Amino acid sequence: MSEDDLHVAIGDDFVATMEIRRPPNNFFDVELIEAMAAAIAALDDDPRCRAIVLCSEGKHFCAGADFATPSDGQAAGRHLYDAATELFATATPVVAAVQGAAIGGGLGVACFADFRLAAPEARFSANFARLGFHHGFGLTVTLPALVGQQRALELLYTGRRIGGAEAVTIGLADRLAPIADLRAAARSLAAEIAASAPLAVASIRATMRGDLASRIRLATDREQAEQDRLRRTSDWREGVQAMSERRRPNFTGQ
Questions:
Q1: Domain 3-180 fold
Q2: pTM above 0.85, yes or no
């Protein structure tokens, strides 16, 4: 991964900014998620940082994996979800600024954060079933926790896209901000967190998140197995082709 793909800077207000720089879609891969986990782990040990703003350069927050570049999610013997588990195990509070699409695994990245601020132009979608695929990135755990079990089932079964305002209404996002003010609003919330006693915030976060990383590990084990199985089906091939051709898929159940 190029060092230019992820930029981290710490301000004088105890807030760090972590920017994904793979515009316009900001697709992820194992290397990017590993880099994010390592960067946040380093910030966990940096007394200058008490909260993080997670943002992305360009039009979209994160469009997940790039299916135009075939991959089984492996790199150097490690799976994407090994890195994802490490990401969930980090300790510093994260505020995500979602300006555009948070799609598929990109929705999983957004749901990793403690809070999500969305622009009205934001688009959230768990589009896996529309690709003939099983959801991933721990959404088994994080999505129901945010929107409830029934709403999570609806979003996972249909893959429909929802805008920023609806995301706030259903609890998927915490606040709505104009796109021009989105990062400033995210930084303001992060600065509020950073102004609290850091030991107290760390203690509260550890209590509230509990065994989240372990639950993510168990969930992604199941998600990975199902994704590997469904990747061998005709429906998966049809879903990816239909997406590339911008047409409605014709699934056959095979």
A1: 2-enoyl-CoA Hydratase; Chain A, domain 1 (3.90.226)
A2: yes
